[in-house]
Design a protein that fits this description.
This protein has helices at residues 5-15, 79-91, and strands at residues 18-28, 31-39, 45-53, 59-67, 72-74. It is α+β, with helices and mostly antiparallel strands. It has one domain: Nuclear Transport Factor 2, Chain: A (Roll). The chain has a 5-stranded antiparallel β-sheet, with helices on one face. α1 runs antiparallel to α2. The protein is globular and about 40 Å long.
Length: 93
């Protein structure tokens, strides 16, 4: 986890959350899907999914949501977070 400690710091800075799970998977040779699970100070868990294109170096927002037994919220995009994650991942290749 030390290698991706930067993602944890970015999650704290931009989303005010604690990183709980990070999954990265290539969907094709140029596209990396990044799934981040984090929780906030109220112990709600959130999922943030995005893709990063290695050729254009641009993030593509997929979803940001919070799901509990009582409700499901679809949240908006945080472009500054996506750009920071993209820069960190592409910078650590």
């Amino acid at each position: 986890m030390v290698r991706h400690n930067g993602i944890s710091e970015i999650t704290k800075e931009f989303l005010d959350g604690t990183l709980r799970k990070l999954t990265m998977q290539y969907t094709d040779p140029d596209t990396l899907r990044v799934s981040i699970m984090y929780n906030d100070s109220n112990d709600y868990y959130f999922d943030y999914d995005m893709e990063i294109n290695s050729r254009t170096e641009l993030p593509n927002f997929l979803s940001h949501k919070c799901k509990t037994q009582l409700f499901k919220l679809n949240l908006g995009r945080t472009l500054s977070f996506e750009n920071a994650v993209s820069s960190f991942i592409l910078g650590s290749k």
